[in-house]
Each structure stands twice: as structure tokens, then as C-alpha cells.
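Weekly modeling sync, notes
Attendees: S.R. (lead), two postdocs, one rotation student

Agenda item 3: backlog of single-chain predictions. S.R. asked that every request posted to the team notebook include the full sequence so nobody has to chase files. The rotation student volunteered to paste the first one in as an example of the format we agreed on. Action items at the bottom.

Example entry:
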Amino acid sequence: MNQINYDEVRATLTAAGYTMSPAGSQWTPSDQHAYLTYSQLHWPLLPSTLLMGQAYSCSLPETFPGHNCNTPEPGERTLLSIAISGPDTVVAGQTILLTAMGTYSAEPLTMPISGATWVSDDEAVATVANGAVSGVAAGSALIGVAFEGVNSPDYTVTVEAASTRQLQSIAITGPTDVESGQTSVIYATGTYNEEPLQADVSNLVTWTSDDETVATVAAGGVVTGVEEGDFNISASLGEVTSPAYPMTVTPVRIPQMVQVNGPETATMGTPISLMAISHYDTAPLSADTTASATWAIEPEGALVPLGTPGDFNVTVAEGNISVTATVNGVTSEAFTMVLVA
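Predicted structure, as returned to the notebook:
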């Protein structure tokens, strides 16, 4: 047996950027930590016999100083058990990754295992290679690992059938005009071949305007008017695209009055929805201008905006919340909500 030359170990680890004790000094806990860090970073290169303070020079990579491969005495560091971890379900046609961790008789006590043999007891349900489990068909399969004569306990992976629900079409609904410099929100509804037959896909689709000099559209269907004119909006998800949805950018209208609608009471931690309704002296006499409203809230921070215009989360527990909405320079009267437990 040929022990490691610790002076050479220190010199090499120092050159690699580790903080080590001076050559010739006693091996310290910090040296131990640095050496273990090195061994863990390069563990695929190191056999399981490596043990700091009693390590064999054969355990080091060939390029490491002091390498001299002699047969180690048995029992210095042995693999005691293997445990598999990771997700336990996979959809047929997809793949998940499992990890095998070994428990050893000496430091480092746990370490990922590389080069082990992975097996599945039912390859008609799931196959496995180097920890990558691929679902084949609905059912359950037992996954196991063998390494250095040690077998892991069986790890059950459930394979779920692939969904046959497919998107058939997309339809856009909502306002057909937006004022120049203002925003409106439109919605995308998907129709499927299986229940539930319809679903709101507004936050899933990719929105497109055919003339961004007239209007732009952002995630969630938020349309912003740029200049007066006509344009078309489309929504796409995967291979499915909606029919063109025609819209018009109209001149800015100044409302005669803005009104805030919402719940009269609210509870901390719950979401609420507010609307800003603008009233005009020409047709159409009223319009939902929630998306273009600027909100003022007292006390400040009592309502936190959510993703959809007008949707907020309540952050205070008691008292009243006062809300106003401003549209094109016109501000509503204060709308008051009472907080309840």
C-alpha cells in the first residue's frame, strides 16, 4: 500500500485554486475539506476505495501527483446501499430522469453513482438507461440499480397514458375598437375534441397584429392603439391559428364621467375585480375602459395588481380601501370597499 504524498497534494490543490496549509505542516480540517471537495467534483474518476487520511495513491487520477496504483486493502471504503430518487410518474412518450445515490462506510458518506446498471422489470411499460426513464405504455414498472454488488430497492414509476385531447380551433372575442393611445383586452377561446370542449387560452396563444403601425398586441390579448386605422389580430397555439379578428383604432374620446364598479366588501388575501366604465355624450354612450384606466388606491399598497387589468389582490386586513380610476384625464369619484374578516 502506498499512501498519498500530502505535500504534493497540497501543491496541486493550491495550484488549482484551493486554500491549503503550507507544505510540511500537519494535515488540517480545511485541507480535508478542500481534498473532499476535489474528490467530489471529480468523483466519476475515483474508485470507491478513496478515503481521506487513509487513501491509496491508486485512488487518484493518473495526472495527480503521487499516483501509484497498488492493490488496496479490502474494507477501507465500501458501498453499503443505493437509493433511487426523482419523479415517480411519466407520460407515455416522455422521459424523466432518476438519480442513484450511494451510501458508503466512510467519508464522503453519500455520493451520486455513475456507471451503474439500470433495469426495468417491464420494458413494455417503461425503459431505463443511465437513469433516464421513458414511458412506453400506461402501467407501472419497477426500476432498479446495481453497482459493485449492491442492488437498490425497487423504485416504482407509473406511466400515464398520453392525452388524446387536441386543440381544433381558436376564436377571438372582445371589443372591436380601441382608441389611439389606449388599450383594450380581447380573448382567445380554444375548442377541443374532448371534454372540456372549450377553454380560455388567452394566456397561452401567441398574439399577432397584421399592422403594428396602427395597433400592437401583447401577451394576454392587450391591444394598444397607435394611430387611427383598421387592422387584424390573430392568435396561434401550436399548429392552430384563429381566423383574422378585425379591429379599428378610433380617435381619442374624452369621457364625461368615469365610474368604478366592484365589490362593496373585501377580505385580506383574496382577489377582487374592479371595472372602470366611461360615459360619453355621443354613441356609444358608455364603454368598459378598465384596460386603459390609471388606478389610485388608498391606503397605498392595499391592492396589488394581478395579471389581468382591473384584477387585484387585497393586502390589508382592516379598515376601508378607496379607489379612483382616471381615463383620458377624467377621474372617477372615489369607490370605497369595506374590509371584513
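Discussion: group reviewed the output briefly. Residues 257-339 form a domain with the Immunoglobulin-like fold (CATH 2.60.40.1080).
Action items: rotation student to repeat for the remaining queue; S.R. to check formatting next week.
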